[in-house]
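Human: For the file, kindly provide a plain-text protein record giving the amino acid sequence and the backbone structure tokens, at your earliest convenience.
Assistant:
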Amino acid sequence: MEKNQMEKRYGLFTAICMVVGIVIGSGVFFKAQDILNYTGGNMLIGILAWVIGGIVMIICAFNFANFGTKYVRVNGVVDYAESIVGPRYAYMIGWFLTTIYYPAMTGVLAWVSARYTLVLFGSDDITGGLCMALGGLYLCLAYAVNVLSPKIAGKFQVSATVVKLIPLGIIVVVGTIAGLINGNTVDAFKGAESAFGGAGFDSIFAGIGAAAFAYEGWIIATSINSELKEPKKNLPRALVIGTAIIMAIYILYFVGLVGGASVDELRTGGATVAFKNLFGGVGSTILNVFIVVSCLGTLNGLMLANTRSLYSLSVRGNGPKPQTFAQLDPQTNMPANSGALTLLFAGAWFFYFYGANLTNPIFGVFSFDSSELPIITIYALYIPIFVMFIVKEGKKDVFKNIVMPILAIIASLFMVFVAVYAHGISKYQSAKELGNFSFPVLFYLIVFAVIMAVGLLLYRRKNKK
């Protein structure tokens, strides 16, 4: 094995679990409630939202799976951007992933994991120091597991994926059967008089936006493509199989929920009500246990990608002190230096997310939703990759290299529009959020521009020639 080359340690099953495990986090348990509220309890429109969001995910995953058969190095998205668009654009995407996307998502999941752990033990201190301390501990533990023992991290990812599928499977089977017996399922669909009746495009777009955030995360699996056995076969299979499984689970779970509770009960009480009705008072406690495991599994997957992000730039001779951050620990064959710095980035975004969501935000007008806006950005950054892939590879295969990338471009543009549009719908947000809607997006773009400018400055210094 060459110096600074990472070990081939993961198989197809682990890769599929990466895709499924990262995407299926706490969102699946709560976005169903949001979608029902956005669509006025219309099950048909709710299912349509899940279907459209799933189709967008599968289209984009299919294209990245196609890329995965051609390009393999250290970090999937960066590899593809480098080979298709060019080294500068690849670097800028890698810098965005390293400094904004991965650490912001990792920080959010650390806070969410801490929050539901405290809820599980009956504490309501979800915005206080205890939650901050526990979230910081989860960040450090996730880093330690991934850097010191990557094989254990991979096994935990598999185990967490299996565990988080248990409550979903229970609701799919028990909820569906119970719903057919007690009539809840029939009543729910009778209530949806027509797919668009009583709910305009505002409701549909809001539902799709919620589904999109629940589906986000599959791209992170590409960060281990250089560590996969037979990556040109296993990564495409993992992306396509994993995303298809996720879409099926989400839709079946959504339908199964109404077997345990009426639509109105779900709109006010969420999945906990269905669990209580089906399994008694202990149901909500069991649900919270699964939610904590689910969140920690997602946090583990995000940290796995986070620790490798700066390394992927450094092995190309870019970023801050590439010689230092391209080094691998001789004992674990992991980028410990890269992981340590990106852990600090995740800690900073963790503190930002906490401070920006207080009743009186610490950051004032610069308080924006760091859990959603980076996701909008990543879809926009996919578009040049799809465009240039058509230009370079289009003649070789019309369907894979022209038709599917065009669909991916349309899907990405659609998701950017839906996310921005849904974020500003007044009937689904508080007056305070609506009044500040234009400002959070604007100030996010300012922060984004400053961070990207720093990255570009570093790139130019390293590549003056």
Observations:
- The chain has one domain: 12-462.
- The chain has 19 helices and no strands.
